[in-house]
Amino acid sequence: MNTEQIAYMSVAEQANLIASTKLSPVDLVQLYLDRIEKYDNILHSWITVCGDQALAEARQAEADIAAGKYRGPLHGIPFGVKDQIKTQGVRTTMASIIADDFGSEEDATVVTKLKSAGAIMLGKNNMHEFGKGSSINFHFGEPRNPWNMEYEASHSSTGSGVSVAAGLISFSIGEDTGGSVRGPAWANGVVGIRPTFGRVSRYGGLMYAWTQDTFGPITRTVGDNALILAAIAGQDPKDQLTSNEAVPDYTKMLNEDIKGLKLGLVREMSTGQELHPDVDKSLTNALAILRDLGAEIEEMSLPKAKYAVPLQMLTSDADGAAMFLENWFRTDWDKFDQGTRTRIGAAALIPAPIYNRAMRGRALIRNEILESFKTYDGLLSLMNFIPPMKRGDSVEKLDSQDDVAQRMFKSRRICSYPFSVANVPALSVPSGFTDKDVPMSIQVASRPFGEDIVYRVAHAYEQATDWHKRHPDLDQTVIAASAGVK
Questions:
Q1: Which residue out of 10, 24, 45, 82 is catalytically annotated?
Q2: Candidate list 160, 180, 282, 431, residue with the active-site label
Q3: Active site residue 82
Q4: What is the CA radius of gyration of the chain?
Q5: Number of domains, the chain
Q6: Catalytic residue among 134, 156, 163, 201
Q7: How far apart are CA 170 and CA 11, in angstroms?
Q8: pLDDT tens per residue, range 305-325
Q9: Can 180 be counted among the known catalytic residues?
Q10: What CATH number is associated with residue 475?
Q11: pTM (2 decimals)?
Q12: What is the pLDDT of residues 13-29, one digit of tens each?
């Protein structure tokens, strides 16, 4: 094995080598630190890297494992966290220059759980300012798509998606409001899940939309995703919105076949005049594979789904405005990125009666989606009607009404927002590449706490394809492009 192969291994593969002492946690951490030093000055997927601290923890993990104190499959595995999640002794920037540190007094619960399992935090991943997904200027550099740097890396948890796809970390924890885990997974060719609301504690996170925000893992395989979610899920007394629903071992369910599962293909989230031919082809192939595996798939309709986009933005943006208004918006207006400032400023003007009506509208969408699970075990859709866009085309400058319609209310969000509004689990899994070598994905969703179904379907599809075995050639896409990229 060479370092490239180890860097792109799944967590499960790395864990097997560590458990058998064929791979040192110290060497694994150093491998990623070396790759970060070599590539991340162009990729910009990290804000803070804790090299010395991670190496010290890796040495301790190596000693513990040698002494027979192996904690399980995450022991000695390095991870990153989106920089809106608090970490003790390591600053949390929110990708903003308003403050140097928004909280380093304690670890968020997700970080505590991962550390308890023996995982090693390598650092904090870059993101869109305050996790809003609308940044125009990036204070810590714009995260780049490692497959083709002319194209977007999606929005919000971008550094988390880039670092996993580029083999700069074993896995990362992102945050998803309207698609901020699933989007970076889609654009960067990896796997990302938005868990059921309340499945994972949000304590220690600087949350943007209290009624929708979730933490979820971004990984290179579905199996890894199931492994990480099982480690971070569960009730937390520090977060009263977490559920006491039992957490199953998702990994044990992965190899159950999907014969007889009834899946609904959501018409509004998979067809339309804007459907790109490459996306259409990848979806057709994915459906054929799932049918060959025994799934029963039929097209169905969620007519209210299209309203999820304005209703989600009316409510979650207003939630964000409530958080920012008293703290920084009045005093540090000029320090906000233009994209963040525009959306928050507009949201701060939403009247309470409109917000109330929008919340009631969201309940109608949620009820429609929940009703569908009386017929279907899971739902299928695209992650986007189009492949990732050129970087400049994806920026939400919002110069006109047409710009709002094209950049915000079409394509990207219509495929992700409905499941966010319904607060059900939804996962993005790679489904192919365009001729420009940028990834595409399909999305699998299920009932509340139906992550087991989501993982079964996605894993069966993943294992029947080889998309997860492909990795970007950074020496071609990054080094060759570095001369023209700032």
A1: 82
A2: 180
A3: yes
A4: 21
A5: 1
A6: 156
A7: 6
A8: 999 999 998 999 999 888 877
A9: yes
A10: 3.90.1300.10
A11: 0.96
A12: 999 999 999 999 999 99
